[in-house]
Write a structure and sequence with these properties.
With about 475 residues, the protein is of the alpha/beta class. The protein has twelve helices and 19 strands. A hairpin with a 2-residue loop joins strand 17 and strand 18. Helix 7 crosses helix 8, helix 7 packs across helix 12 and helix 9 packs parallel to helix 10. The structure holds alpha-D-glucopyranose.
Length: about 475
């Protein structure tokens, strides 16, 4: 079971085992457990106080919404190799179709993504309401999308493109005020001798390799490629990265080996990094992938990462794009549970972002331009289990009890306001039977005049008189003033 599935199974177990009272922990915001652990090298999470953690995570918690970019050599085959289509995600084509190392590496000489435009990508993220970008610096295929002096299998040394997209993105992010992070596959590397490989198909045991060129010593890979490239990423892009996104640790990433990487991360005390380094290090953020944990992660920082279609890396035939309604309601749902939404784009082999992804992001940006106050710099819902319950009869795609959302609204919280994101339009009035705060007034956020709405208090709660029509078909935000 690969990490993504293992982490999902673990998270679902955590979610189902949470009692409603646990979700109240969410109300106090993220009070990280900073009890020092017995790591060979203590990580910042082991030693900092809650206040220090809150200060370090502040921008990230306020951001709520980021852009994931999966882009690399795999965008050339785009899901098809020698006429055969991969059934996996686009960036796993080498593994899924057991492509020999030499054949895969030969792609580099044809990689010339002249359509890549860092300004346009950063501007797209910005206009979409995204506050940070995380791009694949090196994925499991081992190809570095940056100028690496450590290993020649990279976009500057091995392709006719000869440019460093990470450098160009960093310059544009600096110019446009966007945070920039790097995804780095620290453990899996399917083209470097000794790099790990997750099991798929009938690959050799115990390495799960499919080409003798992959065989070698993991420590050699770790010390001649992985760690030196992480050093390059941390040193060569000035004030970036602000996030390092590790992925798919294997048993090779022992605490001692992970500690060598942590020693590097500790030299960048403001850096945020996720829970996928391995070696028992928790990192800063839980990373539920392609799903939203029904109760969030009370008391922890977490980020749900998702594709817009079904693949991270570009696949020419994956046109199964989620609707803007689904994407926006995911963002609203995640925000109401105190998490971040890292939404992926997968540029093609020329460096162009697929139009369906651009269109959806523009539409999300329009909603956020009007209603972003209810998302950015807010805390999770004060209504606890408003999200629903687990069915005693229906199962979800993982065979676990299906989570049934109880209400067709969500809520986020500010110091002096409660936001109610109405996903369907109640006829006449919106009723709340429990009030976590005293409500002094109400209006619709998208109403430019913030026309006061009629409140009727009774023994069984509060009724808010609403106009006949919603102001937005996807979600209309009702603002309850609570000062
Ligand atoms: C999984 C996949 C990887 C992808 C990641 C994104 O770990 O293995 O290809 O980059 O999910 O979260």
């Amino acid at each position: 079971m690969n990490l993504a599935h293992r982490s999902i199974a673990a998270l679902l177990f955590a979610a189902t085992s949470l009692s409603p009272t646990h979700s109240l922990a969410q109300l106090e915001g993220s009070k990280a457990d900073t009890t020092p652990t017995s790591h060979p090298v203590p990580a910042i999470q082991d030693t900092e106080t809650s206040a220090q953690r809150d200060a370090r995570m502040e921008w990230w918690r306020e951001a709520r919404f980021g852009m994931f970019i999966h882009w690399g050599l795999y965008s050339i085959p785009a899901g098809t190799w020698n006429g055969k289509r991969t059934t996996s995600v686009g960036e796993w084509i080498m593994n899924d179709l057991s492509i020999p190392v030499a054949d895969y590496k030969a792609l580099a000489k044809n990689f010339n993504p002249t359509g890549f435009n860092a300004h346009d990508i950063v501007a797209l993220a910005k206009s979409s309401g995204m506050k940070y970008i995380v791009i694949t610096a090196k994925h499991h295929d081992g190809f570095a999308m940056f100028d690496s002096k450590v290993n020649p299998f990279n976009i500057v040394a091995a392709t006719p493109f000869k440019r460093d997209p990470l450098k160009e993105l960093a310059e544009e992010c600096r110019r446009q005020g966007m945070k920039l992070g790097f995804y780095y596959s620290q453990d899996q590397d399917w083209t470097a001798p000794g790099g790990s490989a997750y099991k798929t198909g009938n690959h050799d045991l115990p390495t799960h390799h499919w080409d003798a060129a992959q065989d070698g010593d993991f420590d050699t890979y770790l010390h001649t490629k992985s760690i030196p490239q992480i050093k390059e990423l941390l040193a060569n892009y000035k004030d970036y990265p602000v996030v390092i996104w590790f992925d798919t640790p294997t048993a090779n990433m022992t605490p001692a080996r992970a500690a060598e990487i942590v020693a590097l991360l500790n030299q960048h005390p403001n850096l945020i990094w996720n829970n996928r380094l391995g070696g028992t290090y928790k990192g800063d953020t839980e990373t539920p992938e392609q799903y939203i944990p029904p109760q969030g992660f009370p008391g922890q920082d977490w980020e749900s990462c998702m594709t817009m279609n079904d693949t991270w890396g570009f696949k020419s035939f994956d046109t199964n794009f989620k609707s803007t309604q689904t994407l926006l309601r995911n963002l609203i749902d995640i925000s109401s549970k105190g998490g971040n939404y890292l939404l992926n784009i997968g540029p093609d082999s020329k460096g162009n972002v697929p139009t369906p992804e651009i269109d959806r992001l523009h539409e999300m940006g329009k909603w956020l331009a009007v209603n972003g106050e209810a998302i950015y710099n807010t805390k999770s819902t004060l209504f606890g289990g408003e999200a629903g319950s687990f069915s005693s009869t229906e199962k979800d795609k993982n065979g676990k009890p299906k989570f049934v959302a109880a209400w067709d609204w969500r809520s986020t919280t500010a110091a002096d306001k409660i936001y109610i994101e109405l996903l369907t339009w109640p006829n006449g009035t919106f009723h709340l039977d429990k009030l976590p705060r005293n409500v002094t007034g109400a209006y619709l956020l998208a109403d430019p005049s913030h026309t006061p709405l009629k409140l009727t208090r009774s023994a069984n709660g509060l009724d808010i008189q609403l106009p006949n029509k919603a102001l937005d078909p996807i979600a209309t935000v009702l603002v309850l003033k609570t000062l």
